[in-house]
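F.,

This is the one I mentioned.
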C-alpha cells in the first residue's frame, strides 16, 4: 500500500466512524465552529483539570469526511496532553497544513504523526484547508473560554 492510499484510508475510516463523538462527561469548556463554505459544523466539548491537562475531549457535528476525520484525529491525539503540549501540536498541525510537508512536534509519536499527515493533502485544495482546521480552531476557542462561534471566514 502506498502512502497516498494509507492517508486516504485513515481519512475515510475517521470520517465514517469518528472517535470521541458526543458530549464528554463533566466537560467544563466548549465552543462551536462553522465553515459556511462547506456547511461543516462542530461543537467541541473539553474537560480541563485544575492543572490545565486535557482529561476529556469530544465533539459533535456534521460535515465532510475531511472535517469529521480531522476532529476525530484531534480528539485522539490531544487527550491526556497539557495545555502547552496541545498548543504545540495544534501549531505543528496548522504549520503542516499551510506551509510544510511534515509535522514537527516532540509531543507526538510516529503513528500519531502519520495520522495527522493523512490530512496534509488538503493544502492542494485551499478551500478544504478550512474543513481540516475548523475543529482545531474551535478547540483553541474552548481552551481560552471564548463564547463566540468560530467562523472559518474570519480565519486566514
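My design for it:
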Amino acid at each position: 500500500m502506498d502512502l497516498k492510499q494509507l492517508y486516504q484510508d485513515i481519512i475515510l475510516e475517521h470520517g465514517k466512524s469518528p472517535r470521541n463523538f458526543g458530549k464528554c462527561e463533566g466537560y467544563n469548556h466548549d465552543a462551536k465552529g462553522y465553515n459556511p463554505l462547506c456547511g461543516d459544523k462542530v461543537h467541541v466539548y473539553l474537560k480541563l483539570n485544575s492543572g490545565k491537562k486535557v482529561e476529556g475531549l469530544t465533539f459533535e457535528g456534521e460535515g465532510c469526511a475531511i472535517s469529521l476525520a480531522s476532529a476525530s484525529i484531534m480528539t485522539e491525539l490531544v487527550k491526556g496532553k497539557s495545555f502547552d503540549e496541545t498548543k504545540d501540536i495544534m501549531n505543528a498541525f496548522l504549520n503542516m497544513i499551510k506551509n510544510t510537508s511534515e509535522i514537527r512536534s516532540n509531543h507526538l509519536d510516529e503513528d500519531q504523526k502519520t495520522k495527522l499527515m493523512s490530512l496534509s493533502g488538503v493544502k492542494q485544495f485551499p478551500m478544504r484547508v478550512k474543513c481540516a482546521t475548523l475543529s482545531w480552531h474551535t478547540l483553541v476557542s474552548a481552551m481560552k473560554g471564548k463564547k463566540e462561534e468560530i467562523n472559518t471566514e474570519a480565519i486566514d
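The chain has a mean pLDDT of 92.

Talk soon.
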